[in-house]
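Pipeline run #58 for the internal structure catalog. This entry was flagged by the ingest filter as a single-chain record with no existing model, so it goes straight to prediction. Upstream metadata was stripped on purpose; only the residue string is passed forward. Reviewer on rotation: M.T. Logging verbosity set to normal.
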Amino acid sequence: MLVLLLVLCLTACGGTPGGGEEGPPESPDDTATSAPPSDHNSDSSLGGTYWTAVQHESYNDLFDRTEVSQMPTERWWADLFLNEDGTAQFREVLGDSFNSYLGSGTWWLGADHTLRLTSSDGDEDGEMNGRIEDGRIILESFYGDRFYFEKAERPGPGGELCIANLHGTWHMTTGEVESWSYNAREEGLASTLVFESRWSDAIEGYVLSADYYFADFLDTDEPEYRQEAELRTELLEEPLFRGLSNELWSVRLYHDDTGAEFFLTLTDPDTLYLQEHYETDGAPALRTAVYQRVDAFLPETLQTALYEEPSDCLTFYWPNPPDDVSAWLEVLPVTKLEPDGLDRLLVVGRWYETQIRFCTGEPLWDDSGRLLDWVTDEILYDETLNIDEPRWFSLTIPEGVPNLCLHIKRSWEDFWYLWPITDTNGYLVDGWTFLTP
């Protein structure tokens, strides 16, 4: 009887033998944001699985309602890879571009079927939380929308990549022609590919296009340059060639007006293979080039110099920049303003549209030595620069009296800012600056 009374007393007081008070129950959100266990793959049944989005929910602030959309559509889809080694990939693709993307993350399954995806660099903004419910994965995106995923057949090699991975800048590193492999730089070659989305009125949306830059004979006095702008993309459901790790797809690059045509594919997020068919001595031939992803079209040294310039800078110019800048941008053609020019001048647009002119003539000064105007003899160059667009020029920068003058203005203005080109610094005119670092 004494034992029975003791048990009843403990039960009434809410106690447990050998313990104190219990804490509040852990919510699913608390579980999802706790530290991941040492074994990310806590549920072996999820490792190696692939999921596709079948439904999307988002909140519409304007109408104060939740809107539900079925997926996929012709131009919009999302999927999720949960790999056996604990790595994960989430991608939402709209047209040819990522709407949201977690390319190198990790996943783990917590209590109560809570699922957490984190970026490999520990960026909290790259975290996604969700749960497993009725055989589905419900995942909240970075921007608060909700995706409903169902398990699907995992795609073959190359399926973890898509055309949206092409976005960005690529530099050629190696090449192959008729079984001869070579290093591009050692052979005086350079090539750059730039992929970006541009607006299309035809589909009322953005489409992926590419700009192609190629330079040959860079180790000679007369390099040859080739550029193809706004190449269109066509997705092909076939590999570029056998033996590559991407067995599922490739892309055709083409331009209807110029007849340019290339074929390419990705073997990983940072490696691109490009092929071009051509003729030599009347016989068909094929050249293959390998490109690696780089951070930006402009080199880091130049980006730093541009960042340090005033925000109202119209044009940035840099006489004889350092080797790392010159080598990075050697794929761009050089406009020869003077024969046998001893100097190179790099000009970069810093406004949305900046018109520049190089003119021969002579300066007109007042008695105090202030520049009044430039009396032009001949206009050697007259073009428009877009923002962050670089151009190379060859000339000889004199120590004394200038032979050339750089004219600068915004496209809709009538007034020109002038720099008679000498070895002195640039001019400050009415707060609009164009400086040399």
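catalog note: The longest strand covers residues 371-386.
catalog note: The chain has four helices and 28 strands.
status: ready for reviewer M.T.
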